[in-house]
Amino acid sequence: MSNKINSHVIILGNFDGLHRGHRALIAKAQEIASLKHSRVILVGFNPHPLGFFNLDFRRLFTLEDQKQEALRLGVDKSVHLPFTQQLAQMTPQDFLDNIILKQFNPLKAIVVGFNFQFGNNKSGNIDFLKKWAQQCHIQVSVVEPIKWDNQIVSSSLIKTFILNGEIERANEFLGRVFYVHGKVKKGDGRGQSIGFPTANLEDIYTCIPSEGVYVTQTELLGFVYSSVTHIGPAPTFKSQTLRIESHIFDFDKNIRNQEIKIYFYKKLRDVVSFSSKQELVNQIQVDSDQAKKYLQDFLQEKGQK
Description:
Blueprint: E1 8-12, H1 20-36, E2 39-46, H2 49-53, H3 63-72, E3 77-82, H4 85-88, H5 92-103, E4 107-113, H6 126-136, E5 139-143, E6 147-148, E7 151-152, H7 155-163, H8 167-174, E8 179-185, H9 190-193, E9 199-202, E10 212-220, E11 223-234, E12 239-248, E13 259-269, H10 277-301
Parallel strand pairs: 1-2, 1-4, 2-3, 4-5
Antiparallel strand pairs: 6-7, 8-9, 8-13, 9-12, 10-11, 10-13, 11-12
Helix pairs in contact: 7-8
């Protein structure tokens, strides 16, 4: 008897953030796949359907992050179907017959979340999916909502936390630390001039936390450094331009044009205007001390060094 695996169990959805709810879908798919000797394939869409209809939509993380995180969680492969006007107008029957069945045959099982909808104007629901699957002799598994702190985990709720500066709650619901990824651009040198040089980010196309000062870690060139990050204008310097700038502790290298990630742990305070540069310097020192203490306690609690 051959042990070759050539059949599929797919997880169907959007997977924005791959949060705790999505991880429950992956775990269920892995359980089914082990019994059916199949590969687990995460099937999403690009662009995100909400982003197709609303250009202001931002994912929690990049698509590349989603692929890498899915692999880390044990998914065999990620496939992102091109979300086009043609796909958006497909009937549920056409979508299942001409996309899902054709691309993932032989298909053993489909795993979806409790609120899964598909097809033109979301006209396809779980009942429709189950009836279709029964005719095709395909198993359907529906994963019930995952709750954290008595709330249903969802991408939209996590985004609400992030946009409100509730980073600690966002991280709890995600099951990992939220971060932004971008390229370091040339700044105006103000941080350097007051003894706190910063890495200024640009080209960020994902969700950005609300204005404020945050405890962060900054990953660059393969290393992770403790940092404190400012998001917002610089009212002390009469600048209203939104900026994301990270002061990396004990670091003085030129990293312009480098790709970096900033991991967010906690909001320390709102953006405020100071009456003098010295007052700002004093506050940045307080912010830095608080950030170092928080990260030290956090890493000790996690058993890290």
